[in-house]
Amino acid sequence: MPERGFTLLEIMLVIFLIGLASAGVVQTFATDSEPPAKKAAQDFLTRFAQFKDRAVIEGQTLGVLIDPPGYQFMQRRQGQWLPVSATRLSAQVTVPKQVQMLLQPGSDIWQKEYALELQRRRLTLHDIELELQKEAKKKTPQIRFSPFEPATPFTLRFYSAAQNAC
């Protein structure tokens, strides 16, 4: 007469399946408890790193336009800043409503470089001022990087209404 009961293999399989199921449940609950500002900051950092790598690989000048309530990745084509197309980075990224962004540029070297370019074209001071005002109204990225130059220094802070900056 065969013996009744479970083999060691069957018991180990059941314990493994219970552990696997509980790990999935714990991970689901753990991701929901993350503050929205921290999640938005991590998302930006991941996208920014991918975009910066793309600038080096493709040899293009790229930038990030910080325009609350979100940001957009841009590319310099034919003398104009245009939104990046044909990638998953192309869409305007909107941060959650409870998250605020604060950009602190570390340098205005791009604006100074543009002013020097205008001076080289022998424009009058009034014309240079008008051109700079026009340029400021355009949607140009505040953060720029090229494969051959250092990136624009900046600090971007993500705030939540319920907590301090990340």
From TrEMBL:
Top-level taxonomic group: Bacteria
Major localization listed first in the record, in broad terms: membrane
GO terms for biological process, alphabetical: protein secretion by the type II secretion system
Topological category with respect to the lipid bilayer: Single-pass membrane protein
Annotated ranges, domain General secretion pathway GspH: 40-161
Pfam families from the UniProt entry: GspH, N_methyl
Protein family (similarity comment): Belongs to the GSP H family.
Protein name: Type II secretion system protein H
